[in-house]
Design goal:
By secondary structure, the chain is an all-alpha fold. It has one domain. It has 7 helices and no strands. Helix 2 packs parallel to helix 4 and helix 3 packs antiparallel against helix 4. It is globular, with a radius of gyration of 19 Å. The chain starts with 5 loop residues before the first helix and ends in a 7-residue tail after the last helix. About 2% of the residues have low confidence.
Length: 227
């Protein structure tokens, strides 16, 4: 089921873009005299940036379609792209809620979980993107192997983080890895591999849940919007 109202989808995407930008600005201090540029080395912030770019693009795309086709109907740059972005930010939310926060995760410095800033980048942005997919993105466009393709986004980040560290790069506070489960020194190589394997299974499981939901919503939509 898709809400065929470009006025509503544009307003939602414009507002969501502002909220996502706010979260990025707060977590990185962009609106201060001394921004924390190292924040952009973390998957959390990079996935939020991806969501911001996608949401702004979706809003612009919606306006462009409205000028050509009118304000009734739905618009998205790509249904499969929207799902990929949704999965990328869902990873951020799930790892935060089920891996980092429960383990009393602490980053270098005065880090407190579930602050407004934390909630913006880890919870509110993912929810905004998921709601956009549910309400404004046409269903039935996904294919069975899409969840596997979606996994390339967090895996690309893992590759970047490990290569960056191996080349001498350091994350906030001088740490060699961005997240504790990636630390070979404390977890051992086998421990890190197990962590990544477990997270991969969970990631694919959630991905196929989204794929299954897409199938269910496809069958539930009105015939008028079958295409």
């Amino acid at each position: 089921m898709v809400l065929p109202y470009r006025t509503l989808s544009f307003a939602y995407r414009a507002l969501a873009s502002f909220v996502i930008l706010l979260g990025i600005a707060r977590v990185s201090g962009l609106w201060t005299a001394t921004p924390t540029w190292s924040a952009f080395l973390y998957y959390t912030v990079l996935s939020n940036v991806l969501c911001l770019v996608w949401m702004v693009w979706s809003a612009v795309y919606t306006v462009r379609d409205a000028q050509r086709k009118g304000w009734d109907g739905f618009s998205t740059p790509s249904a499969r792209g929207a799902a990929a972005v949704m999965m990328a930010i869902t990873v951020t939310m799930l790892i935060y809620l089920f891996v980092l926060a429960p383990g009393l995760f602490t980053q270098p410095g005065a880090y407190e979980p579930f602050t407004l800033t934390d909630n913006l980048v880890h919870i509110i942005t993912p929810v905004l993107v998921i709601v956009d997919w549910l309400l404004f993105v046409p269903k039935g466009r996904l294919v069975w192997y899409d969840p596997i393709l979606w996994a390339t986004i967090p895996y690309s980040y893992l590759a970047f983080a490990f290569i960056y560290s191996a080349l001498g790069g350091r994350f906030a506070g001088g740490t060699t890895v961005p997240y504790p489960f990636m630390n070979v020194e404390t977890n051992g190589l086998g421990g890190v591999v197990l962590w990544i394997a477990g997270l991969t299974v969970a990631l694919l499981a959630v991905g196929y849940l989204f794929y299954g939901l897409d199938r269910v919503l496809t069958r539930a939509r009105p015939r008028t919007y079958r295409a």
